[in-house]
Amino acid sequence: MSNNPPELPDDDEPQQPDLSELLRSVLGGDSANDQLASALEQMGMQDIDPQMMQQLQSQLQAMMSTPVEGAVNLELATDVARKTVSAAGDASVSATAARNVEQVVQVANLWLDEVTDFAAVGPAKALSRAEWVEQTMPMWRQLVEPVASGVNAAIERAMGEQLRRLDPGDAAQLGLPAGVDPAALMGQMQPMMARMSAGMFGAQIGQAVGALAGDLVSGSEIGLPLTDGVAMLPANVSDFAEGLEIDGGEVNLYLAVREAARARLFAGVPWLGAALIAAVQSYAGDISIDTEGIERAISDADPSDPAAMQEALQGSLFSAEPSEAQQRALAHMETLLALVEGWVDVVTNEATGQHLPHTAQLSEAVRRRRASGGPAERVFASLVGLELRPRRLRDAAQVFTALSDAMGQQARDGAWKHPDFAPTADDLDDPQAYVRRRQSPDEQAAAPDEVDAALEALLAQGAAELDAERSTSGDDEPGDDEQDGSAKGDA
Asked: Where are the domains of the chain?
C-alpha cells in the first residue's frame, strides 16, 4: 500500500461527478438510471459547475433517502420552517423569560377563576419560534394533508398528460436519447415524482409556518388547538407591545389571559377542537383542483428549474368557485372560530377589567389584528385556499354577553356543553332570540323548524367526520379523558 497521498486535480478544483453514478447513489442502481443520466447529459446537465452538481447531489439524497409517509414531507417542512425563523432571528428563551411567563400565567389563571368555571390548564410554556414550529408541525400536516394529496395527484396527472401527448419522434425536444418513448417514462418517474411533490409541498408548508412563527404571540392565537396547554412566545409578545404605547407588562398580562382562557375552553370542551379541525379538513378534502391551470403552468415552465416550476404552480392550484360542501364546511368553521374568539373576548375583558387600565384598548387592538388578516390567513390561503378569519367576532361576543346578562356566567359557559347548545350563525344575527331559546328550551323543542333540521344534519355530518378523524389519529393525540384529568389536576 502506498504511503503517498492521492494526487489532487490542478488548482484543487472539485472533480466533475458522473451523472450515472450520481443517480445510482441517489435512486439506487438499475438500467433506468443510466437512461435517465444519458438524457440529462444531452440536456447539458453534465456541463453544470461541479460544486453546483455536488450540492444538487446532496439535496437529492436528502429528499430521496428520507422515508416520506403521505403527501407531505414533514421532516423537510420542519427543517425549512426552522431555517426560516433562524434567518429572521430567533433566540432561545432565557430562564428569566420562562419564569416571567410562568408567573404571568399564574396571575392570569387567578383572574380567570373569578369569571369562568372551566378549569385551568398547565403548566405554562415559554417557547422560542423554533420550538413553536416543532410543537405545531404535526398538526399543520394533519390540517393540510388532504389538499396536498389532491394537489400532488393533479400535478402527477398533468405531467403524465404532457408526456402522453408526445411520441418517440418528439424525444429530441426533451433531450432524450433517440427511440425513447416519453410516455413510457411516466411509470419509471412516478415514485420519484411522488417524493418530489411531497417535498415541494413540505417546503411550501415550512416557509408558511416559519413566517407564522415570527408573528403569533401565543400557541393557539389563530383559534385552533395547535399546542397543548398555555404557550406564549415572549419575543413576539414584545414585538406586539412596541406599537401600542401601553406598558409591556400590561400587554403581557392581557395576552396571557387570552391564551389561558382559550386553553381552558379547548380542554373543557372536548368536541370543540376536533370540530374545528374536522371543518378545515372537510373543506380541504373537497377542494377543487384547477387541473387545466396546473397543466398550463407545467407546459410553460422550465422542467429543469424546480424553482421556476414551483413559482409557476403558485396561484394555479385551486378552482375559484368553492363547492357546496366546501361552503357548508366554511360557514361551520367561521361560526366556530367566531364563537371561540367571542367567548375569549368576553371572558378576558371580565377577568382583566378590574385589574388592567387599558383593557378596552388592548381588546380593540386584538380585534383589529384578527379582523384585518395576517400571517395565519396567508398560511391557509396559500396551503388550502382558505381564509382563516373570525369575521363575526363582535357578533359572537354580543351573544355571550347577552346570555351572561340574562342568565349568568354558568349559562354562558354552559352553551359549550354540547354542539346542540352552541349558538348558530343565525343566532349571531339575533342574540336575544338565542337567549329566549335558552330560557325556554321546552317551547323551542316543541316547535322545530327547517333551520333546526338543517343544523341537525350539519352537526351529524361534523360528528361523522370527527369520528373518522379520531379513528385515524387517536394513537397520536392524548385522549379527552387525559386532557380533562390534566386540567383538573392542575387547577
From this structure: 70-170+185-336
